[in-house]
């Protein structure tokens, strides 16, 4: 009886130990899903600044050649199917060169508010290089512009809607038509270049941006 009792006690102890071990054994962690890779060009960017040039011969026979620079602080959100500009708080653009009358001129332009620009955006697999082709006739939003010639004499340009300009192909400088871009993931920079032509004029745009967030 003592032997039998000892056997039962030993068996009970073994079972208890086994159950405890089974309960204590940690469950295997579920494998982590790989983080989805976001293409380099997608996200919210802010302009460091831009430069541009418009040149060509006017109907009157003058050679117009005007340089543009400035407009730091524009927030630019690049999504798969559109670009959204927020000009609020951005700097002026300064304009200088030979005007449409063949004489030296200086001026400035200021944009504010939001512009929605539906676009066809294509890129390589990582979004390092690609193209933004805007559907400019579908541009929308309350963004407005003002400007003034300062030399040889002051003359106000009044106020206009940036979307209305885009719809008729009169692009305010940072608004793209069919631009190329290069994205640097290490430096977190985006460079957008655009060449626009109308009548006898060619406009070139070089816009540099820094990443704000994905």
Which helices and strands occur, and which strands form pairs?
Elements: H1 2-24, E1 43-57, E2 63-70, E3 75-78, E4 82-86, E5 93-98, E6 104-112, E7 114-123, E8 129-134, E9 144-151, E10 155-161, H2 162-167, E11 178-184, E12 189-198, E13 201-213
Antiparallel strand pairs: 1-2, 1-3, 1-13, 2-5, 3-4, 4-7, 5-6, 6-9, 7-8, 8-11, 9-10, 11-12, 12-13
Region (Disordered): 128-152
Biased composition (Low complexity): 139-150
Keywords: Signal
Question: How would you explain this protein's 3D organization?
Answer:
With 214 residues, the protein is mostly beta strands. The protein has two helices and 13 strands. Strands 1-3-4-7-8-11-12-13 form an eight-stranded antiparallel β-barrel. Strand 12 and strand 13 form a beta hairpin. The relative contact order is 0.18.
